[in-house]
Design a protein that fits this description.
336 residues; 2 domains; mainly beta; single chain; five-stranded antiparallel β-sheet; Methylamine Dehydrogenase, Chain H
Length: 336
């Protein structure tokens, strides 16, 4: 029940799998894995009433080079856009290593309204020997923040960690002797997870208050519910899914990225409703939080475009962060 790695051939139609676990996106799509040890993730489109099978693999640094090793996926969760799944999977490389890992796979293309290309990126690359991660859970209000389980087989210690994939910051929320399967509260101010009582004799659900960064705790966890496991924090309401997509609307300015996906240059368009000579920062991060490009600009017209060269960047997912010192917006883009 730990982490993942995978890759995809997206738009192949297939019959329905024997489902072990699933995740639904707004009643329009369903992601599932098989009860068998299958190296695939399956997605169902309720509109077309079709299944697509995405084959899992391990991407490498070499462009277009992938290797085997994935045996099966387990935890599944949709991102805010409905284009990507975050999941974990068990990997076995004979005579070398076995571990769990976490990754992101594009299974849908909103712009084309069809299946995604199945490209994969890992949450972390090059995990040390004996380290596994899994059970990823995206925060309810910040698409760049997620929590996950971290297991060190060398010490037999489990930890619940939080990560900001925009900045690369990682925080320890709690250490214990069991898998946590964390889940954020509706407002991201608290987190629930599996735990054990003080005598280590009973399964409990723990709860802890979080700092504003959402990846570190304030104080010590408490028991929320005894004799219970696998918590999931649900809430009713509507989420603003504009954040994290390629067109985000602010009160006084909008920002868009095109083309998306892009090949050699990604254009960031600022539409400033009231030009005030304010300086805007434009930053490009990879999915492990490394800053790969940075510039600033002062729009003098209502529509202003900044071109980010990307010829030397490897293919994959990136985050564009645009801000004026008071407000920041993040866009998800894809390099082909």
């Amino acid at each position: 029940m730990l982490v993942f790695i995978v890759s995809v051939l997206a738009s192949c139609k297939t019959s329905a799998p024997s489902i072990m676990s699933l995740a639904e996106y707004k009643g329009s799509k369903l992601a599932a894995i098989s009860v068998n040890q299958d190296t695939s993730i399956y997605v169902y489109n309720f509109v077309s009433q079709q299944w697509a099978r995405f084959q899992l693999y391990n991407p490498t640094k070499g462009q277009g080079v992938n290797i085997a090793g994935v045996r099966y996926a387990e935890a599944l969760e949709w991102d805010y856009t409905g284009e990507y799944l975050v999941y974990d999977a068990y990997n076995l490389i004979p005579n070398t290593a076995e571990y769990w890992d976490v990754g992101f796979i594009r299974v849908w293309n909103n712009a084309a309204n069809t299946w995604g290309d199945g490209t994969i990126n890992k949450l972390f690359t090059g995990l040390p020997a004996g380290i596994s991660i899994g059970n990823p859970s995206i925060s309810k209000n910040s698409p760049n923040i997620l929590a996950f389980d971290y297991y060190d087989a060398n010490t037999n210690v489990f930890s619940v960690l939080g990560a900001n994939i925009e900045t690369g910051d990682v925080g320890t929320i709690w250490e214990q002797a069991v898998i946590g399967t964390p889940s954020y509260s509706r407002t991201d101010d608290r987190m629930v997870f599996n735990g054990r009582d003080a005598n280590n004799t009973m399964d409990v659900i723990g709860i802890v208050t979080l700092n504003t960064n959402k990846i570190t705790p304030t104080g010590t966890p408490a028991i929320f519910l005894e004799q219970a496991i696998w918590p999931v924090w649900f809430a009713s309401g509507q989420r603003d899914t504009r954040v994290g997509i390629d067109d985000v609307v602010a009160n006084s300015w909008t920002v868009a990225a095109y083309p998306n996906p892009f090949a050699s240059v990604i254009n960031i368009n600022l539409n400033v409703l009231e030009t005030t000579n304010a300086e805007y920062s434009v930053q490009l991060y990879n999915l492990i939080g490394q800053l790969v490009y940075e510039t600033s600009t002062q729009p003098v017209t209502s529509s202003h475009t900044v071109a980010i060269p990307s010829q030397d960047l490897p293919a994959g997912y990136y985050l564009v962060k645009v801000g004026n010192g008071k407000e920041f917006k993040t866009l998800k883009v894809v390099k082909q």
